[in-house]
Design goal:
Length: 641
């Protein structure tokens, strides 16, 4: 099993319409188990040029084609032709050059998902720059670290408030020379300032870029909680998006219905950036929605009417649960439940037919589904805009039951698995051959290996160059012998489908796809005199919560100071004054992190974690799996409404 990953393997064959034929993974076994799976690339490797060329290539090939749509402040959508978008990119790129930014300089963008994000991405690349996304929900501490570590010379925030919050940190950021605000129309001013820069200067800078040129630094939390920059090249993105476009042919190349994608996930995350680039690359109409709040997103979906959604399990769960709640309020709860059962059976029957393990939906099942379609399924599709046929889902596992329901309701789910380090997806559910409950096959051009300890290793041209380390002079390699260790545990079945079974790292990944390193918050809280041990939970859950045990000495002191009588710990678990003190401690700890990483709820346990109970190692480290198993009821209670 020491064979290194191959970079130059044959491209998969295509049918008479130019669509790639479905190529099953090549698998390798060791000790009776499948330990490696690989799919050849569907798209040839890009050998010259960069992402900066895409707007200009589109303008030359199809100047009138709609590549984006822009929402105005009244909520109306205006189409942006390829030629117009290229002109905007050119103008802003000239403005960045006029402001003195040099090739290779880093420019950070801190904003929600909006048109200007994609515009700045391509304009920065056209000016030879490297973009650095920053979550708009990041704490001041996190933002300062990313700006300092990346050496960003410019920052574009969405709001004046974000810029003002960073004011006290500016003396600690010696490289930062420019601070622009979208809401103050600074992007438009950049375009105006660029009028004095010759267009040829942008062409020269674009010509300096190649597939191996650094495109972006995307920071992701490490096990210590300190973000580290993943150095992704233009070639990494080409390998990712070109193969994704070819594999997901119905999403990006369907001609029976104009394909369109409404992007509402954060563009600070590589998943959102990758899909935005794929849409520009494939000339699929792309829209941006800055808010996930139902009162904002639902009108955008209704007006934009996408054919595909880029989503996470949490949102699909929310749509389902909201529909169920509305049905129950209207006295149709039983009807909804029957429709759910029919949809799941229908989705599973479709899967069986596509995988050759069954005949497909029976006539009776088709009839039942047709009956429930106007009552339930059509309403769910209408909530997503009415034209949605596909959803690309990532961030955390969706689960077989929900995937089968949506398939039966008429929305095909392409579930995937990947990391920032893999420029997005490393595995994807293949069209026409899904396996519900898995994260699919290797993305074309990807090799997946299961190490002896069960860790998932990945290889391919979309795997990052390395991690950013200014102390080491730039980028340091991230792979061992060409294989990226993911820290995740998984299994490959006989046909090469990957199932994620656990996490070697201690990172939590919430239902919203947010990676949370528990150690910094746990360590902070353990310094409180009342707290002995803390374990954060929230993996696959809507938010982070905490299990807290009390320090006996600290508790005794607290009781004495308040004049409380000595009572067993069990009688203090719901004490309002005690919980108020602990809540203040959590509030202080939450200042270290962004809102999605913060602790929302907690429970106080009657007994401490000890080595004797099996909850601590001899070195006093938490045995997380054992604690989670033994205290499953307490954890479930943290997510009950």
């Amino acid at each position: 099993m020491s064979t290194p990953p191959h970079r130059n393997v044959p491209v998969a064959a295509t049918d008479h319409d130019g669509r790639p034929l479905l190529v099953e993974p090549h698998t390798r076994r060791l000790d009776g188990a499948v330990r490696e799976a690989a799919v050849p690339p569907f798209a040839p490797p890009v050998t010259h040029g960069s992402l900066a060329d895409l707007p200009f290539d589109n303008a030359a090939a199809a100047p009138g084609a709609t590549v984006l749509s822009r929402r105005d402040r009244e909520g109306h959508w205006t189409d942006v032709p390829a030629a117009a978008f290229a002109a905007e990119v050119l103008a802003v790129a000239r403005g960045l050059i006029a402001e003195g930014l040099q090739p290779g300089d880093r420019i950070a963008v801190m904003a929600r998902t909006r048109y200007e994000w994609t515009l700045l991405d391509f304009a920065a690349w056209a000016a030879g720059l490297v973009t650095v996304p920053v979550y708009p929900t990041s704490s001041v501490f996190q933002t300062r670290w990313i700006l300092y570590d990346s050496g960003a010379v410019a920052l574009v925030t969405e709001t004046a408030g974000q810029a003002a919050a960073l004011g006290p940190e500016l003396p600690h950021l010696p490289d930062l020379r420019h601070l622009w605000v979208m809401d103050k129309d600074h992007v438009d001013r950049l375009a105006e300032a660029g009028a004095r820069v010759p267009e040829a200067e942008v062409a020269v800078r674009r010509g300096m870029l190649g597939p191996d040129t650094l495109a972006t630094l995307v920071y992701t939390s490490g096990t210590t909680g300190r973000p580290k920059g993943c150095a992704l090249s233009h070639g990494n993105f080409f390998a990712e998006v070109d193969n994704a476009i070819e594999l997901l042919h119905p999403v990006f190349k369907a001609r029976d219905d104009e394909p369109s994608v409404l992007l509402f996930l954060p563009m600070s995350h590589v998943f959102g950036r990758m899909v935005a680039i794929a849409c520009v690359r494939a000339r699929v109409r792309l829209g941006h929605a800055p808010s996930l709040a139902a009162e904002d997103l639902l009108p955008d979906l209704a007006a934009f009417r996408p054919t595909c959604l880029l989503t996470i399990p949490y949102l699909l769960e929310k749509v389902f649960n909201s529909a169920r709640a509305k049905a129950e309020v209207g006295g149709r709860g039983a009807v909804f439940d029957r429709a759910t059962a029919v949809a799941r059976r229908y989705g599973e029957a479709l899967e069986a037919r596509q995988t050759g393990t069954g005949p497909g939906p029976s006539r009776a099942l088709k009839t039942s589904r047709a009956c429930y379609d106007p009552l339930v399924y059509r309403r769910i599709r209408a909530a997503m805009g009415g034209r949605v046929r596909y959803a690309i889902c990532g961030g955390s596992p969706l689960g077989r039951r929900l995937a089968a329901f949506y398939a039966g309701a008429g929305i095909e789910i392409f579930e995937g698995y990947g990391l920032t380090e893999t420029t997005g997806a490393a595995t994807v559910t293949p069209p026409l051959k899904p396996r519900l409950g898995t994260v699919g096959w290797p993305l074309p051009g990807t090799r997946v290996r299961i190490a002896a300890d069960g860790e998932i290793l990945l290889a391919g041209d979309h795997v990052l160059r390395g991690y950013w380390d200014p102390q080491a002079g730039g980028v340091v390699p991230a792979t061992r012998d060409g294989w990226l260790p993911t820290g995740d545990i998984g299994e490959l079945d006989d046909e090469g489908y990957l199932t994620i079974t656990g996490r070697k790292k201690e990172l939590l990944i919430t239902a919203g796809g947010k990676s949370v390193a528990p150690a910094p918050l746990e360590n902070w809280l353990r310094q409180h005199p009342l707290i002995s041990q803390v374990m954060l939970v929230g993996d696959g859950r809507p938010y982070v919560a905490a299990l807290i045990t009390l320090d006996p000495d600290g508790l005794t002191h607290w009781r004495r100071m308040l004049g409380k009588h000595p009572v067993p710990v069990e009688l203090l678990l719901d004490d309002k004054e005690l919980r108020a003190v602990l809540q203040r401690a959590l509030d202080e700890a939450n200042k270290l992190v962004s809102r999605p990483e913060s602790i929302r709820r907690f429970t106080v346990l009657p007994a401490d974690f000890t080595e004797e109970t099996g909850h601590l190692t001899p070195s006093m480290k938490l045995r997380r799996d054992r604690i989670a198993r033994d205290l499953s009821k307490e954890i479930e209670s943290l997510y009950e409404r």
